Amino acid sequence: xxxxxxxxxxxxxxxxxxxxxxxxxxxxxxxxxxxxxxxxxxxxxxxxxxxxxxxxxxxxxxxxxxxxxxxxxxxxxxxxxxxxxxxxxxxxxxxxxxxxxxxxxxxxxxxxxxxxxxxxxxxxxxxxxxxxxxxxxxxxxxxxxxxxxxxxxxxxxxxxxxxxxxxxxxxxxxxxxxxxxxxxxxxxxxxxxxxxxxxxxxxxxxxxxxxxxxxxx
Length: 217
Ligand SMILES: *Cc1c(COP(=O)(O)O)cnc(C)c1O
Fold this sequence. Notes:
Helix content is 40%, strand content 19%. It is an alpha/beta fold.
């Protein structure tokens, strides 16, 4: 446990305080999360609805939970009463579903639109043409119960730094282009392997798992 706190402490001294660290706690037990929370970590991320619901129920209500994994429309409802930010919104059908379900509980939900910046077929997200079209239009302003506060992207899993850099840079470019129009605040880019490149390219929110908690089985 001490090791994990030290790791997070180290990261925080190396990363500007204007960058939010979301501790990605998927597969990790409650006691580890609670301990980090008790040492000041407020933001935690999960990628599966079932696991998120179980953990949210058992842990302090002050924790700010981030949904970072692919979200199916039929799983939206149960997370809306408490979710702090959904990073992985990858279709307008999902946006509309969140808006519709959020209206029922009268809670405005903060989301990020996920952009497919990698050519890897496994990555979800809007492609560049789609996202430009949406951000140029006024469809997002018409949503009463969804606030799009920024963008999210995942780089190719690669040792080639210039590939990762190009991908993060392309998302940073779109983010800045539409920042004022949409009052964006969050650019979520960077995981354990590539967070330094992400910060250099404008990220202000990192999703860090293994570098904090150690590798997952
Ligand atoms: C698991 C996960 C992370 C964290 O990955 P690490 O390499 O362990 O830091 C970040 N973002 C998403 C979407 C993830 O699913």
